[in-house]
Request: fold
Amino acid sequence: MNTPVIGVLALQGDVREHLIALAAADAVARPVRRPEELAEVDGLVLPGGESTTISKLAVLFGVMEPLRARVRDGMPVYGTCAGMILLADKILDPRSGQETIGGIDMIVRRNAFGRQNESFEAAVDVKGIAGDPVEGVFIRAPWVESVGARAEVLAEHEGHIVAVRQGNVLATSFHPELTGDHRVHSLFVDMVRADRTPESL
Reply:
């Protein structure tokens, strides 16, 4: 059986919820904090949290450059909320010292949907997800200001881009791991499964 091993970057944020969602989507899920752990996974989830904190901890733990290299080499990656910010090639008004991993030709606006007390849920139609709309949980969520020609818009909410894919890199503004609906994680697991070579099975 083609069961991929997918890591969740476990430096800060809602790691446990992603591990549960990935397991429900038929992946072997494990936390990743260090380069040697990153080297053992077929794909990686970048969770929500605080994007500046995650990027600084990634540098501190020595995982930032290996992660950038693996993304450049085509490893499938999925980022939610803060993870979307980390996967953007450019951030509007980044905090001082904030770095990104990159991987999607897009410009992202931090906290675009408002502060913590303005969090909300909304039904989102996501391209590639069959059935009813996905229930999106938006918590201090970013949105995508613009995308380049290589990026594909998968979903919008109130005229703002909230889900994007570019090759093996997927990003959403919202948190599907908080809803019990694992279809977005299943989409990502399928991406990882399709990426694995026969030699790795």
